[in-house]
Amino acid sequence: MAGKLQSPRGFHDLTGSDLRRFRRVSSVCRELFTRYGFEEIILPVVEYAELFERSIGEATDIVQKEMFVFTDRKGRRLALRPEGTAGAVRAFIQNNLYALRPYHKLFYEGPMFRYERPQAGRYRQFHQAGVEIFGVADPLADAELLKLVSDILETLGIPAVMELNSLGCRNCRGGYRDALLSYLEGVADHLCEVCFDRKNRNPLRVLDCKVESCRRAVASAPKMIDFLCEECREHYRRVKEYLKELGVGFRENLNLVRGLDYYTRTVFEAVSDELGTALIAGGRYDYLVEEFGGPPTPALGFAVGIERLMLLVEDPGREEELYLLIPFGDVWSYALKVASLLRYRGKKVEVSYRRGGLRKQLEFANRIKADFAVIVGEEEVKEGVVTLKDLRSGEQRRLRPEEIP
Predict the structure, then answer these.
(1) Binding site for L-histidine, residues?
(2) d(Cα 52, Cα 50) in Å, to the nearest integer?
(3) Beta strand pairing status for 264-272 and 396-399?
(4) Quick check: 350 and 373 in contact, CB under 8 A?
(5) Domain residue ranges in the chain
(6) How far is CA 48 from CA 44, 68, 79, 323, in A?
(7) Annotated binding-site residue numbers
(8) What architecture (CATH level 2) is domain 16-169+229-310?
(9) How far, in Å, CA of 354 to CA of 348, rounded?
(10) 322-403: which CATH topology?
């Protein structure tokens, strides 16, 4: 192929500062997930396309426009996963996890894929860390999940506003949908082209549109909160009560619906005012396990957009000190033994493969931001020592390899 090879649009490499910030976000999430009692599950990147069409909803933008779908040699339709919940539900059922204990708390991390316009913090291959709780209907679980979201953001030093709403259940959703659809018919001339098409297929999504004309049109639309059955109303009340007791701040957004069809009752987003987008989002999906052929199982979860959080996290820098081992002359055997000893003791050691005098070697040490130079020449070998130079202070001394601090 002529010309320089490049990655496809929307697919990016992670190196240097970006990688360090990625690892920072990922490690904080994993550590807190573990503290909250979640166990890791590793899910496949490829699933049958039907899994997402059934769970996310055929009328959603993700399924209609954004999934990477292909057929295998036997003509079966496969998809690169656009989100993690559907795969986690499939795994929960397929592996009969429901038969092992009363409830399960799982977490995952990995790449997701959506064919959408690349922009800052949003790529066609992006990464999410997420958690799912299966088998708990109590609103206490909703509140704990939101506390976990709050802890992640606080640990990373990221300001965000928690937005909260309830989408009700089967018993109350139908009446609300009819009322909303009737209202949307009356303002149809003010809807954008996308929402005009949405109003019959997925009317709740019109409430979530960011186009200003649509926002004005739905400002007086019926609110789900006014249609909640008594059980959903009580569930929502208790979630808010627990959050106040836990000290988790939130604001109600009665137009918050999320973009996926499977949500019920509690939905939430941690929104960055700086980016104007959701950083962490999720909610309940109490019917999805049953709809996939499993036993009736209440469930809830959330996903963290790692690239989005990276935009708001400072580069943590390299934590461990770097030792550059510089051999002069035919001293490789001794030098490699010194390097092995230091690595065995947990040090990060780079052996210089360059040739040249001490000045050039120290210039190289500066370029790779080494903290110490461990110099080994024939004199050092004879005496069984090394010369250790602190590249930050300039201090230099001779000592035995096992004495290196």
Answers:
(1) 83-85, 114, 128, 132, 258, 262-263
(2) 5
(3) unpaired
(4) no
(5) 16-169+229-310, 322-403
(6) 11, 11, 6, 49
(7) 83-85, 114, 128, 132, 258, 262-263
(8) 2-Layer Sandwich (3.30)
(9) 18
(10) Rossmann fold (3.40.50)
Question: Are the C-beta atoms of residues 305 and 111 closer than 8 Å to each other?
Answer: no
Q: What is the largest CA-CA distance in the chain?
A: 92
Question: What is the rounded CA–CA span in Å between residue 21 and residue 356?
Answer: 35
d(CA 187, CA 170): 26
pLDDT in tens, 302-331: 999 999 999 999 988 877 899 999 999 999
What is the per-residue pLDDT across 340-375, written as a single tens digit (0 to 9) for each?
Answer: 999 999 999 999 998 889 999 999 999 999 999 999
At 401, which amino acid appears? P
What DSSP element (H or E) covers 78?
A: strand 77-80
Amino acid making up residue 324: L
Q: In degrees rounded to 5, what are phi and psi of residue 278?
A: -80, 135
Q: What is the pTM of this model?
A: 0.88
What is the per-residue pLDDT across 49-97, written as a single tens digit (0 to 9) for each?
999 888 776 556 666 678 899 999 999 999 999 999 999 999 999 999 9
